[in-house]
Amino acid sequence: MAGDVIEDPVLRYRYRFKREGDVLKVDVWVDPGGGVTIEHFHPTIEERWHVLEGDVTFTVDGENRPAGPGDRLTAPPGVRHSFENTGSTEARLEVEAEPPGELQEFLTAAARLGQAGRYDRRGRPKGMRGLLEGSEFALRYRDTTVTTFPPPALQRILFPPVAWLHRRLDG
């Protein structure tokens, strides 16, 4: 696959993107203990994973599903999920997202927030700057990815005024 490798130092993984029509294909390398451990769902995107190397535990709709080389899993739109490299070596995955929506932009922006130290492994904001930028980020990509904490109903109430404040202060 051609393209730049993007690194998220907080979630301890790297990825590279390629689009094929209505499918976003992503090569993913995950350090031991790394992964998207923040439970979330995609309102309109189906996400499919193929484990090429390593041991990964997926949590899909609350059920832990250990997976190894050759295993494939799917999270349909609206189904909450997360994953973690539970092995002792780097894991490698091929991921497909269909339709891709703004998932590539979301992941790239999330990596930038991680590189800037704006959130922790659980997705919690670090400091006031993390809270402001994180709220604006979550609001901007709410049609692509929604975390399950705080509960989405609470996010709809809290994030708009905090995002507004961020835009106002960054003027």
Overview of this protein structure:
With 171 residues, the chain is of the alpha+beta class. The protein has two domains: 6-100, Jelly Rolls (Sandwich); 104-170, no CATH class. Helices cover 27% and strands 34% of the residues. The chain has helices spanning 103-115, 127-140, 152-170, and strands at residues 6-8, 13-20, 23-30, 40-41, 46-53, 56-60, 63-67, 72-75, 81-85, 91-98, 146-147. The strands form three sheets. It has a six-stranded antiparallel β-sheet with strand order 1-2-3-10-5-8, with helices on one face. The longest helix has 19 residues, at 152-170. The protein is globular.
In short:
The chain has helices at about 105-115, 125-140, 150-170, and strands spanning about 5-10, 15-20, 25-30, 40, 45-55, 55-60, 65, 70-75, 80-85, 90-100, 145.
